[in-house]
Amino acid sequence: MRDRITCFDKECSKVADHIYLGGDAVARNREILRQNGITHILNCVGNYCPEYFKSDFVYKTLWLKDSPTEDITSILYDVFDYFEDVREHGGRVFVHCCQGVSRSTSLVIAYLMWRKGQSFEDAFKLVKSARGIANPTWKRVHADPLSPKSLVRMYRMAPHSEYDPLHLVPKILSEPSPSALDSRGAFIIRIFSSIFVWIGKNCEPEMARDAKAAAYQVVRYEGAQGPIVTVEEGKESSQFWEALSNAPNTLKNTVKVHEDQADLTIKIDDPGKRKVKSYDADFELFLQAIRGGIVPPFSLSIGGHETHIPARESDWNILSSKSISGVMKNSRAVMCRVYSDSALMKETDRERETEHTKIR
């Protein structure tokens, strides 16, 4: 296997007209990138590889670990947004991890499954034909369809990584129920054909904004048809609680609640006091970041360690705003259900124009 990896070391493998795969050796080679017409780069391993040529290419960075336990489902829709943005602008994105074997190929396979409606086997075969050493770690993730058959799904907004604490992503909860709600956060709940964005009483505006954007990703990539309804803690309708409590896979007569959720026997009429202990670390990380906190140092493949640096504004947020505009073209009415605040809509338009200027 090592010899095969060496053979592909300098290969910039074309998977589609706008998607190329490879490893760090290509990522640090400006000449190879230019020869292949690369305009954008998705670096999947920010803790190992820096953004080598920031003045020459448009970068996005993820912080994925090479482990089957790594949660890639939460960042898939952001990645799809990026790939689609590149395609729509006639660009080419180079997707890389350290060797172009696992992390990068997993993301591209998932994208092809959505974009082409392919099975995992067909998408994997296509990627394998382009890059013979492709060996995705997260096969179990691809086994689940991107358009879930389950009647209820619940996501909580949380930082993608401690190295990018302002990049908030929707992390799916294995046991959707009212007891999983936390007054500090924002949650997306898909029940049957309806999508709710539940905003906790103590939720920061930045998190609420990103939750609404993520709800649009659910509409776009999961094919959800129902309206998006924003629900503020303390102002929930009885229909909301009934739908969440009685939906399949959630609360029925009895609920299995995690030990760290045992203190959530809080009445519905007691807003602002819902708290799930297992979320504490994520909330502390996010709050420290928006207050000007420091991200931890990380090693770089070029040698040495980057020193502690201030938390940086995530540029993934602007991309999510552009994705909203794409869905809005197909459903203007639904857009108004979520963004009733006209000032927020204007902010989205300004961000979209700024990003468009940067890319062009």
Q: How many discrete domains?
A: 2
Outline type: globular
Structural class: alpha/beta
CATH topology category name of the largest domain:
Severin
Per DSSP, the total helix count is 13
Helix proportion: 25-40%
Mean pLDDT: 80
Write up this protein.
GO terms for molecular function: actin filament binding; phosphoprotein phosphatase activity. This protein has about 350 residues and is α/β, with parallel strands linked by helices. It folds into 2 domains: about 1-145, Protein tyrosine phosphatase superfamily (Protein-Tyrosine Phosphatase, Chain A); about 150-360, Severin (3-Layer(aba) Sandwich). It has 13 helices and 12 strands. The protein has helices at about 1-5, 25, 30-35, 75-90, 105-115, 120-130, 140-145, 205-220, 240-245, 280-290, 315-330, 330-340, 340-360; strands at about 15, 20, 40-45, 60, 95, 150-160, 165-170, 185-190, 195-200, 230, 295, 310. The strands form 3 sheets. It has a 5-stranded mixed beta sheet with strand order 1-2-5-3-4. A 5-stranded mixed beta sheet has the order 7-6-8-9-10. A hairpin with a 2-residue loop joins strand 8 (about 185-190) and strand 9 (about 195-200). The chain starts with a helix and ends with a helix.
